[in-house]
């Protein structure tokens, strides 16, 4: 009953405000990024646009300062420099006009150092370790261990350019019987709706 009363009060206030030309103030969204000096630490749910707005800078400035190859990919725990000397970045018209609204992803997608040796195209399936009662986390991938032994670092590139870096830490029923298949650990909420994808896979040395 209290909820209905509050809803009616809000509706009445908004209606009267509109009738008399009064603007009703709304509360600004809370931004999760942790700001410390000249650095912003990305939190879950952040976007580059929100961080730029909060810190009084622009998306282009953040992209240039932090040498971001993809303005739609920021990572939870990633530290972004907020001010400094920028370098000009070359962008196609389509990428320049594209809003940076992709939410921060998990640290398992952070780039690994070293050279990458292509292993060709693999089929990708997905699973959520937590759903299976496992505490292995989301930084791993199940593979046929005769192809990729445990501990192998992989670079996985999807057809749209999205790149994941994972470490082989398991072998599942699907991957064990299919040498050209990887079973990628991922939260259920982030698993692609297609269910099965293909990607170019490289070993990071």
Structure description:
- Keywords: Hydrolase, Signal.
- Pfam families: LysM.
- It comes from Lacticaseibacillus nasuensis JCM 17158.
- This is Cell wall-associated hydrolase.
- One of its GO terms (molecular function) is hydrolase activity.
- The protein is an alpha+beta fold and 205 residues long.
- Among the domains are: 47 residues, Membrane-bound Lytic Murein Transglycosylase D, Chain A; 89 residues, RlpA-like domain (Barwin-like endoglucanases, Beta Barrel), CATH 2.40.40.10.
- The protein is built from 5 helices and 9 strands, in the order H-E-E-H-H-E-H-E-E-E-E-H-E-E.
- The strands form 2 sheets. It has a 6-stranded mixed beta barrel.
- The longest helix is centred in the N-terminal third of the chain and has 18 residues.
- The radius of gyration is 22 Å and the shape is elongated.
- The N terminus is likely disordered.
* N/C terminus separation: 63 Å
Over all CA atoms, what is the radius of gyration?
A: 22 Å
Largest sheet: 6 strands, mixed, barrel
Biggest sheet: strand arrangement: 4-8-5-7-6-9
CATH C-level class of the domain at 116-204 is Mainly Beta
């Amino acid at each position: 009953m209290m909820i209905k009363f509050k809803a009616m009060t809000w509706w009445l206030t908004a209606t009267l405000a509109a009738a008399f030309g009064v603007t009703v103030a709304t509360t600004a969204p809370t931004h999760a990024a942790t700001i410390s000096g000249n650095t912003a630490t990305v939190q879950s749910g952040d976007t580059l646009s929100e961080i730029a707005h909060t810190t009084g800078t622009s998306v282009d400035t953040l992209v240039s300062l932090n040498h971001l190859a993809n303005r739609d990919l920021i990572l939870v725990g990633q530290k972004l420099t907020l001010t400094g000397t920028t370098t000009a970045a070359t962008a196609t018209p389509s990428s320049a006009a594209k809003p940076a609204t992709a939410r921060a992803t998990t640290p398992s997608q952070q780039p690994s150092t070293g050279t990458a040796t292509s292993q060709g195209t693999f089929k990708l399936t997905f699973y959520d370790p937590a759903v299976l009662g496992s505490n292995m986390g989301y930084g791993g991938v199940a593979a046929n261990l005769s192809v990729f032994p445990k501990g192998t670092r992989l670079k996985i590139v999807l057809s749209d350019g999205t790149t994941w870096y994972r470490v082989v830490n398991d072998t599942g029923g699907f991957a064990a019987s299919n040498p050209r298949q990887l079973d990628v650990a991922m939260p259920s909420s982030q698993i692609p709706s297609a269910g099965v994808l293909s990607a170019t896979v490289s070993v990071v040395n």
